[in-house]
Amino acid sequence: MTDPRLASARVIMGECFWGEYHLTARDILDRLDRKEPGFDRFLVSKIIENSRHPSRHLRNLFPRDTLQRLLDRYIDRSGEDKRLRLIAANVTGDYNRAPEYQWRR
In which domain, by residue range, is 74 found? Predict the structure, then answer.
């Protein structure tokens, strides 16, 4: 069985880093597990800005409470970007964050 964290880290390497950093998928997981200061915020920003499936990878890599905190911080700093709000709605289940994507009644 494939570890979903490792699978996501591998995809992220190709979609989000483009060879500009000397990291491996295992390096990503090791830094997250060590709780390297600032790395979680850095990784979230790379995933949000560049991943084709950011909600999946964010859910695979971060515990829900950590992810909620990181997304709230990113939203506070980035403003009302629709893509960001949609990602946050998908990850947290709080679909009020992206009302323009809800079915109209």
Answer: 4-101
Structure tokens at 14: 């190709």
The rounded distance, in Å, linking the Cα atoms of 56 and 61 is: 9
pTM of the predicted model as reported, rounded to 2 decimal places: 0.88
User: In Å, what is the CA distance from 97 to each residue of 2, 41, 88, 104?
Assistant: 32, 20, 7, 15
Other beta carbons within 10 angstroms of residue 22's beta carbon come to 7
Tokens coding 59: 């859910």
pLDDT, tens digit, 9 for 90 and up, residues 10-69: 999 999 997 778 899 999 999 999 999 999 999 999 999 999 999 999 999 999 999 999
| Cβ atoms of residues 25 and 9 within 8 Å | yes
* Spatial contact of 88 and 32, defined as CB atoms under 8 Å apart: no
Structure tokens at 73: 């911080």
Concatenated DSSP letters for 75-105?
Answer: HHHH-S-HHHHHHHHHHHS-GGG-GGGSPP-
Domains in the chain, number: 1
